[in-house]
Structures are given as C-alpha cells and as structure tokens.
C-alpha cells in the first residue's frame, strides 16, 4: 500500500463512497503449547488444522537460547499481533521468555527465565514473568523489551505460575503456590521500576496454577490442584467455577471473547495431555502424540474502517491467521471475491487502502477452511 493513502486530514465522505462491513463467521482458533513448539490451530469439528507454528530452533533467537525453550508453557496473544511465549526449560528448568510478532515469528524480545510459567505485557514496553520452583526461581521478574536478557526488577513469588496485567484497575495480579497477590507499579517512568504489594489473599486450595481473565468481566479464572475458581477483582472473593469447580489438575482455562465457549487442558500424562476439552458447547478433541499444556483462544478479528481525505482504510488485526478479506458489490447475490494483496502491516495492523470512487462495496473477513 502506498503511504500516500494515509493522509492526516479527515472529513466525512458522505455519499461519495459507501462502505459496509460484514462480520462473516467466527473462526474457532486457538494457540496451543506444551512441547517444544507453539501452534495456532483452527478447529474444524473434532479436527485441528495448524495455521502457524513457532519453534525456537527455527526462529531468529540466538542459538544459545534454544535449549531454554525445550518445552513451552504460555502462549498469550495480544491484539497488536504480539505473542508471549514462556518455557520452564524442560528437565533442566533453565527456561526462558520470548515475545514474537505474528505472523512473521520475528523475535521482539527474549530472556533467560528459570522455570518461567507465565508472563504479561506491562505499560512502558515492559514484561512481567512468573518463575516457579528452581534455584533462581520463585520470583516475579520485570524486563524491559528494549533490553534482552536483562532483569530490571524482581521480587519473591513462591511457586509463581500466573501473572495478569489489569489495565482498568492499574494492578498487576500474580498467582503463587498458595495465594493471589496484587501489585501497583512504582517509579515506572525511571530506569529502576519496582512493584509494591497492595493486596494478598490465600487461595481456597493448594497449588495455584493458571491465572487468566474472563473477557468483559471483573473475574479471573484461577486453577488449583483440585479445583477451578473464579476470583472477583472488585469484590475480592473466590467462588467455584459453575462448570469446572471440581475438575482436577486443570492446567489452563480460556473463555472465547465472542462466543463464551471454554477450552481447557488437564494434566493427564504427567503435566500434559493429548486432549483439548470444550464446554458451551461440549466437545473433546484427541490428538495422539500431542503434548498440550495450555490453550488460549485467539480473539476473532474485527474489520475496522477509517475515512481519510481521499481514501478509505480497512484495518484488521495481525492475529487474523487463516482469514481472507473478501468484497462484494451487493449482498443479495452472495457473490464474494477475495481482495488481492499486498496488504500493509507497518501500522500495527493489516491495512488495505481504497481511493475514493463512486461505487458501493461490502467487505468481510472470512475464515478459510481446509
């Protein structure tokens, strides 16, 4: 796309050009991790189609880091196309953390992180990493994305397994073996940031494992060895999950932000499983030989429209793997055609530019099926 298609002056186009956006269909797309790679998969019935994969030994990470990603135990996506990957390091427990860009797989950041189990992006291009049991673990560590492999702050977190940045409340929630904590950011605009505990509560069960937000809710999903819980960040109360409350050894839970469907993984073969479980509606997917540890829904793409002086810009997330941009001149005949690229990604989204014309057009993002 020509950068001349992005003028800064804006005005309404009125009837000169009329665009409409059709939502199309939601793709059932999930990031899964566990063994030495992360995959983005599309669910078709009880089958999985691998749309994208990442493996340290096939990435642009320095070769000396590859052994730190012998297993993968977090695959957390962000709307700007970034993906956080953490690793316990396999049997060595000399794990790591990486931030990569979708769909290129280009490394944005990496660091050694002993027995890392989860991470989350923070304001100011920083990242928090929860480290579990290891000689240099049991900590909550802060890194700056501009400084690979260099800790800038750490604090004790026994058996650290989960971490979630809460933008609305400006709190960092962390899950330890026996408690949940909330931290505020301190001295964040300096080179010596810190975290300060402002809340802590003992878990209703032992062995805190997964910590993940419920979309458009004040609740966090919390799993322990014997149960699954919902923790209300406003009321500061725990209640058993209505569907998963007494399910044991749940390694991860994720709620689809549009449909509400739940995907979860149970530790059935040591720490991993060959199965993905679904609720609302219920389904089971069995993949012999897989080692699933965590599964995170990929948010469905939203097609956005921006009006400029002499152009219309269509934008959609870089996470939109396995989708086609399609257009039609009228909806009645159902004739949709694929919009040819190239698309521009230099503005943090996929973009397609159209100069002003007198035609009415309709657009949608459509999932591609095998």
Write the layout of secondary structure elements.
Layout (H helix, E strand, L loop, with lengths): L17 E5 L6 E5 L3 E8 L2 E9 L18 E4 L4 E6 L8 E6 L5 E6 L3 E7 L3 E6 L7 E6 L6 E6 L5 E5 L4 E5 L3 E8 L7 E9 L8 E3 L5 E5 L4 E5 L4 E4 L9 E6 L6 E5 L8 E5 L3 E4 L7 E4 L6 E4 L3 E6 L6 E6 L8 E2 L11 E6 L4 E8 L3
Parallel strand pairs: 1-31
Antiparallel strand pairs: 2-3, 2-25, 3-4, 5-6, 6-7, 7-8, 9-10, 10-11, 11-12, 13-14, 14-15, 15-16, 17-18, 18-19, 19-20, 21-22, 22-23, 23-24, 26-27, 27-30, 28-29, 28-31
Low-confidence stretches: 1-18
Q: Note the beta-strand portion.
A: over 45%
For this structure, what is the CATH class of the largest domain? Mainly Beta
* Helix run count: 0
Major sheet details: 4 strands, mixed
Describe the structure in your own words.
The protein is mainly β and 370 residues long. It has 2 domains: 3-24 and 305-367, no CATH class; 29-297, Neuraminidase (6 Propeller), CATH 2.120.10. Helix content is 0%, strand content 47%. The protein has no helices and 31 strands. The protein has strands spanning 18-22, 29-33, 37-44, 47-55, 74-77, 82-87, 96-101, 107-112, 116-122, 126-131, 139-144, 151-156, 162-166, 171-175, 179-186, 194-202, 211-213, 219-223, 228-232, 237-240, 250-255, 262-266, 275-279, 283-286, 294-297, 304-307, 311-316, 323-328, 337-338, 350-355, 360-367. The strands form 8 sheets. The chain has a 4-stranded mixed sheet with strand order 1-31-28-29, with no helix packed on it. Mean pLDDT is 90; it is low at 1-18.
């Amino acid at each position: 796309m020509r950068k001349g298609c992005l003028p800064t002056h804006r005005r309404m186009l009125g009837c000169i050009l009329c665009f409409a956006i059709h939502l199309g269909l939601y793709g059932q797309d999930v990031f899964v991790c566990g063994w030495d790679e992360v995959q983005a998969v599309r669910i078709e019935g009880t089958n999985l189609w691998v749309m994208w994969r990442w493996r340290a030994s096939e990435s642009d990470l320095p070769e000396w880091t590859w052994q730190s990603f012998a297993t993968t135990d977090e695959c957390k996506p962000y709307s700007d196309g970034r993906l956080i990957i953490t690793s316990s390091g396999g049997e060595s427990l000399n794990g790591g953390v990486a931030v990569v860009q979708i769909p290129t797989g280009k490394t944005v950041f990496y660091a050694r992180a002993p027995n890392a189990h989860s991470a989350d992006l923070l304001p100011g291009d920083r990242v928090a990493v929860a480290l579990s049991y290891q000689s240099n673990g049991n900590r909550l560590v802060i890194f700056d994305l501009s400084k690979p492999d260099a800790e800038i702050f750490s604090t004790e977190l026994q058996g650290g397994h989960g971490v979630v940045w809460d933008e609305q409340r400006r709190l960092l929630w962390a899950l330890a073996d026996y408690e949940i904590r909330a931290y505020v950011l301190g001295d964040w605009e300096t080179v010596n940031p810190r975290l300060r505990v402002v809340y802590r509560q003992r878990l209703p069960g032992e062995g805190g494992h997964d910590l993940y937000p419920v979309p458009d809710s004040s609740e966090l999903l919390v799993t322990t060895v014997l149960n699954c819980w919902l923790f209300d960040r406003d009321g500061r109360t725990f209640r058993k999950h209505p569907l998963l409350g007494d399910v044991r050894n749940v390694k991860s839970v994720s709620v689809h932000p549009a449909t509400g469907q739940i995907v979860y993984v149970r530790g059935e073969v040591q720490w991993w499983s060959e199965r993905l479980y679904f609720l609302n509606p219920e389904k089971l997917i069995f993949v012999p030989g897989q080692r699933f540890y965590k599964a995170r829904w990929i948010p469905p793409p939203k097609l956005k429209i921006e009006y400029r002086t002499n152009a219309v810009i269509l934008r959609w997330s870089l996470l939109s793997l396995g989708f086609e941009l399609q257009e039609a001149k009228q909806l009645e005949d159902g004739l949709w055609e694929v919009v040819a690229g190239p698309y521009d990604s230099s503005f943090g989204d996929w973009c397609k530019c159209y100069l002003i014309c007198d035609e009415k057009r309709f657009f949608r993002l459509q999932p591609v099926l095998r």
